[in-house]
Amino acid sequence: MTNIIETHDLCKIYGSHAAVEHLDLVVPQGSVYGFIGPNGAGKSTTMKMLLGLIHPTQGTVQLLGQPMNDRNRLSILRHTGSLIESPAGYAHLTAQENLQIVADLKQVPRKDIDRVLEIVHLREYRRRKVGQYSLGMRQRLGIAQALLGSPELLILDEPTNGLDPAGIQEMRSLIAEMPSSCGATVLISSHLLSELEMIVDRVGVINNGRLLFQGPLDQLRRHSRGDILLETLDPDRARQVLLANRVRVRDGNSPQCLILPALTDAPLAELVRRLADQGAGVVGVTRRTKTLEEIFLSLTEHGEEVG
User: Closest Cα partner for 143 from 107, 164, 111, 173?
Assistant: First the structure.
């Protein structure tokens, strides 16, 4: 699979502070790549380096198969759409007028405006002044600006930031459809992990400028194995068996429930057999899966890379 974005040993240092450290980012063509991290983790700095808005201290950026440098930057950006930080727009002009300005700057035919307004569901509001738009509408207008010219790559920095739940749902649906509806690869950053989990297929987890994890979302979910909830008819006997087998155990939220640490399938099956043989009366075994947010917190607390 072709990679739309590749960075090698990418660093950005401000004085004694390393905003981004030795970042090797890989975004395959046709993916929706979630770039996850808390505020100040280095997400926006990375995106600005990808777009050539700031120069890296060290390392290289390759977009659309070309190195990002002063010679190639304009030709690369003609095939790239972006929404960094807050959406730009003239509040005293209509959405149509704002898009005409952007189309002219991008040297894109104005007839493309109809297409992007349709994609972001703003066609019926095209004559309304942007100053009268809600935050969600302004975010969608920002994406419409990014979509002008049918870019191969969309770079979206926190596009759901500040939106209400309905706005987040609408934005999420819009972004998830981008590869199929527009043929665009999407790099989207956020700290709202539960929202990205619904739309991305690949993930990069960054904290303090370092990439802690990168790969398919399913691979990250392998780290999601949480505690095991064990329900028995005789919890006292079950506790004795578990302790005899050197399994740590905690009380659950009811007298019949015990909580065991995460176990793989084979050891768990053997443990359940021993509990049954000893008359503990196993009624149920339930795996408790960590959310993406819990996985992220675990990664950032340890500060270790996970493959």
Answer: 173
Domain with CATH 3.30.70.100 in the chain: 222-292
**Amino acid in position 7:** T
Neighbours of 133 (CB within 10 A): 20
The per-residue pLDDT for range 97-108, each reduced to its tens digit, is 999 999 998 889
pLDDT at 198 over 70: yes
CATH superfamily assigned to domain 3-208: P-loop containing nucleotide triphosphate hydrolases (3.40.50.300)
pTM of the model: 0.77
Q: For the chain, give me the number of helices (H) and strands (E)?
A: 12, 15
Question: CA-based Rg of the chain, rounded to a whole angstrom?
Answer: 24
Beta strand pairing call for 185-190 and 153-157 = parallel
Burial class (CB in 10 A: 0-12, 13-18, 19+), 221: middle
Looking at domain 222-292, which CATH architecture does it have? 2-Layer Sandwich (3.30)
Cβ neighbors of 304 (< 8 A, separation 6 or more) are 212
